[in-house]
Structures are given as C-alpha cells and as structure tokens.
Amino acid sequence: MKPLLSAVVAASLAIPALAAEPKDLIDARQGAFKIIKYEFADTLAAMMRGKREFDLERMKIAVNRIQAVGGVLPEAFAVESTGDNTRAKAEIWSDPDGFQAAAVKFGEKIGELSAAVQTGDKAQIGPALQAAGKTCKGCHDDYRSK
Ligand code: ASC
Fold this sequence. Notes:
By secondary structure, the chain is mainly alpha-helical. It has helices spanning 3-14, 22-48, 56-70, 73-76, 91-94, 96-119, 122-143. It has one domain (2-143): Four Helix Bundle (Hemerythrin (Met), subunit A) (Up-down Bundle), CATH 1.20.120.10.
C-alpha cells in the first residue's frame, strides 16, 4: 500500500464513522416529509376524494416519489438529533427496534399502495391508501411530539 493511502486508512480506522450534521439531517427528513405529505394527502388522497382531477399517471408518479424521497429517512434518523427545530421524540433513539418496525411497516404499506395504483382500480387504491395512512399516523402518535 502506498504510504499516503495507508495513512488515510489508518486515520479512518481511528475515528468513528462520520455522520452529517444534526441540523442537516433534520432539514433532510423534514423536506422528505413535506414531499411525502404533498404526494400522499394533496395528490393521492385529494384525487380519491375528488378534490383534484383523478389522474392515474400522476398517481403513479406520486407513489414513486414517496418511495424515492422516503429512502432518505433511515439515514436521516440514524443519528440522535432532537432539539427545538424538530418534533422527533427521543423514543426514536431509545426504542430503535420499535421505530424501525414502524418504518418497515410504512414501507410495506406504500409498496402495497404502489401495487394498487398500478391496477388503476379505485376499489383497490382507496383501502390501500387508508392502510398506508394508518402507518403514517401510528408512527406520528408514538414518535412525533404534538
Ligand atoms: C397524511 C398526513 C399524515 C397522514 C395521516 C394519516 O396525509 O400528513 O400525517 O396522512 O394523517 O392518518
């Protein structure tokens, strides 16, 4: 190994893995949740309730976007980051198994919602949307302060 490279490797072993700054993690997840809310409530639910013109292609984009943006959440919650600018409860980090289970459930229900949207059948999309919404609410009840 070249001397410079071996020095870099040695240094990287000596320090713990570096995470992003808490403020940046908070910003990232709040941005993600804003997009998720826009696509879930203001696009998908609004179209199902007739508050916005029903557009199946746009619904597919909405679910894809929720999945894409939601992908940042595990990393954005990995490091304890609480404070005045976040409603994230300390329980996220004191009960990581419970939080992860809630996150996995959300991912599963969004996956089922995606499958329902692909069918184009409103009778399948409605219940899938409700089931996914329950996983939003469940996690907020336990891990987000009021
Ligand atoms: C939304 C939103 C939530 C969930 C929840 C579902 O659109 O912003 O937090 O759905 O209200 O019960």
